[in-house]
Amino acid sequence: MKINWGTGIVIAFALFMTFILYFVFEVQSNSKYDNDLVVEEYYKHDSHFQEEMARVQNAHDLQQKPSIAYNESGVKVSFPAAFESDKVKGNILLYRPSNKKFDFNTQIALTNSVLLIPKDKLVKGRWDVNMEWQYNGKKYLSKEVIYVN
Q1: DSSP 8-state secondary structure symbol assigned to residue 137
Q2: What span, in angstroms and rounded, lies between the C-alpha atoms of 87 and 2?
Q3: pLDDT at 99 over 90
Q4: Quick one: pLDDT at residue 14?
Q5: Residues 53-74: pLDDT tens digits?
Q6: Average of per-residue pLDDT across 103-111
Q7: Which of 72, 125, 71, 114 shows the shortest CA–CA distance to 92?
Q8: CA separation for the pair 110, 79 (Å, rounded)
Q9: Residue 125: helix, strand or coil by DSSP?
Q10: Rounded-to-integer distance, Cα 68 and Cα 77, Å
Q11: Which helix (H) or strand (E) holds 133?
Q12: In the chain, N or C: fewer CB atoms in 10 Å?
């Protein structure tokens, strides 16, 4: 049987479509390829964007800012000595961009103006740290990226 060029193009096109559809099906059905959204309620989160920017600006305008750093014992959040530790309220979200199963929140409970998140709670790699806090009724938001070794 002889195949002309038109039939060859149709066969090649059908094989290519089959190849692409196989990989689409494989990625959607295999749990190894996690394709979740970054934020569950995207539009609800986006509607509060202006408020978030105001809190970021409040934190940026501070003369003495809290610092977030990683050391051998874990993530150390240090507030300046000028802040009264008992008046600082809020929480810290440690967000793992590669896998949301590792995300966790922790309340801000300062000891000598310092909060330590132990290293054993953290997996190696990149972490986005979002610290939402308030002091004397004013709300702040500090964002940092840290890398755990």
Answers
A1: T
A2: 85
A3: no
A4: 97
A5: 999 999 999 898 899 888 888 8
A6: 86
A7: 114
A8: 9
A9: strand
A10: 5
A11: strand 125-135
A12: N
CA distances from 96 to 9, 35, 93 (A): 46, 14, 10
The first and second tokens of residue 58, run together, are: 């409040």
Of 46 and 38, more confident: 46
What backbone torsions phi and psi does residue 18 show, to the nearest 5 degrees?
A: -65, -45
pLDDT mean over 118-128: 88
Q: CA-CA distance, 101 to 121, in Å (whole number)? A: 12
3-state secondary structure 59-80: HHCCCCCCEEEEECCEEEEECC
Predicted confidence band at 120 (pLDDT cuts at 50, 70, 90)? confident
Give the model's pLDDT for residue 8: 93
Could you say which of 2.60.40.10, 2.60.120.260, 3.40.50.720, 3.40.50.620 is the CATH number of the domain covering 42-148? 2.60.40.10
One-letter identity of residue 55: R
Q: What is the token pair recorded at 9?
A: 């193009």
